[in-house]
Amino acid sequence: MADADDVRRLALGLDGAVENESDGFDFRVGGRGFVWSYPEREPGRRRVLRTDIAVLYVGDEAEKQALVLGEPDLFFTVPGYDGLPLVMVRLPRVTVDRLAELVTDAWRMRVEQRCPPPPGARMGP
User: Fold this and answer.
1) Which top-rank group of organisms is this from (predicted)?
2) Which of 56, 95, 105, 114 has the maximum number of C-beta atoms within 10 A of its C-beta?
3) What is the 3-state secondary structure (H, E, C) of the chain?
């Protein structure tokens, strides 16, 4: 079972990660978001930052669909994120070890977008 404190600890342990000021959590590397609190929007109500749900950058639509369809109890999406390589994860349902993999993968993909590694190079903490 993971929580916002786990997200913060994991994200800040990654090279170059910075936290933007937020009522929840919002982590970026090279100016690009890789994990943040889910901004839930309901018609007629103010946006609410959900710190029990993390939005993760997953790189592409295929990965997003694989996660959502493969583990619907853990991952989901909303119409506002259609066409975007983002997926939501329910923190109380994910282990800290799995969350570490997800956050690290999201960070790695953002770093690689900014500065692709040379062939054969390994990236990660």
Assistant:
1) Bacteria
2) 56
3) CCCHHHHHHHHHCCCCEEECCCCCCEEEECCEEEEEEEEECCCCCCCEEEEEEEEEECCCHHHHHHHHHHCCCCEECCHHHCCCCEEEEEHHHCCHHHHHHHHHHHHHHHHHHHCCCCCCCCCCC
Distance, first Cα to last Cα, the chain: 22
Mean of the pLDDT values across residues 44-68? 94
Q: Is 11 exposed, middle or buried (0-12, 13-18, 19+ CB in 10 A)?
A: buried
Lowest mean pLDDT among 9-13, 50-54, 114-118: 114-118
The confidence band for 114, taking pLDDT boundaries of 50, 70 and 90, is: low
Q: How confident is the model at residue 113 (pLDDT cuts 50, 70, 90)?
A: confident
Please give the Cα distance from 49 to 58 (Å, whole number): 20
Show the domains of the chain with their CATH numbers.
4-114 (3.90.1150.30)
